[in-house]
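Figure 3 (text version): structure tokens given as input.
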């Protein structure tokens, strides 16, 4: 009962906030809700539910972009569109990386129960897989910075900080230790978010100062 009441309250607040935003935000928000509803059921039919979660989580970026006048669904070919798409894809991969590390907490239990996840799919080769995904994420962040004409603040703190944090996690995380997986999921996810947001914010400030 409490869960239903909480969900209803969130829906009301969400509807109220969307009513204040441009109509272009509605499509991204509807897709976000739809993918969030589908996500729990993916555990029964695919090992790649982390990818579904990534697509869903990253849709918040498109809601934000639409709120300032950019419609990613217009299919307009421009540098800005390419940059936003690259940033969106990097966010998807970021979620896949961290949720795969997180899923290793329950790997043995999932194997016994027959629950599917990326951790199950890449067992035995998890670190090489996450390393490859990290490389793709950084490449997409670099492309996003290029097409969006972002400055050195973004590339040094945002992209560079994310790359450093991912590298350190890959070297030190012990995927066979559930408590270490949880620690890195919580710590690294916040650090990468701070680095990327900080780099963008600094670039924004410097644009107006100079």
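Below: residues designed for each position.
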């Amino acid at each position: 009962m409490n869960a239903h009441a909480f969900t209803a309250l969130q829906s009301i607040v969400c509807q109220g906030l969307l009513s204040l935003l441009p109509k272009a935000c509605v499509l991204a928000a509807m897709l976000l809700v739809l993918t969030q509803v589908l996500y729990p059921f993916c555990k029964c039919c695919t090992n790649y539910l982390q990818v579904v979660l990534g697509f869903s989580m990253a849709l918040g970026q498109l809601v934000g972009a639409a709120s300032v006048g950019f419609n990613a669904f217009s299919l307009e070919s421009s540098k800005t569109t390419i940059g936003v798409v690259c940033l969106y894809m990097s966010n998807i991969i970021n979620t896949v990386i961290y949720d795969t590390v997180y899923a290793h907490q329950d790997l043995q239990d999932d194997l016994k129960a027959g629950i599917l996840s990326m951790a199950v799919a890449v067992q035995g080769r998890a670190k090489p897989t996450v390393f490859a995904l990290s490389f793709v994420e950084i490449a997409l962040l670099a492309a996003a910075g290029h097409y969006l004409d972002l400055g050195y603040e973004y590339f040094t703190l945002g992209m560079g900080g994310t790359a450093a944090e991912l590298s350190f996690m890959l070297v030190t995380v012990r995927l066979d230790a559930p408590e270490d997986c949880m620690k890195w999921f919580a710590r690294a996810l916040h650090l990468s978010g701070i680095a990327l947001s900080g780099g963008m914010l600094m670039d924004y400030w410097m644009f107006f100062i100079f």
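The chain has one domain: 24-209.
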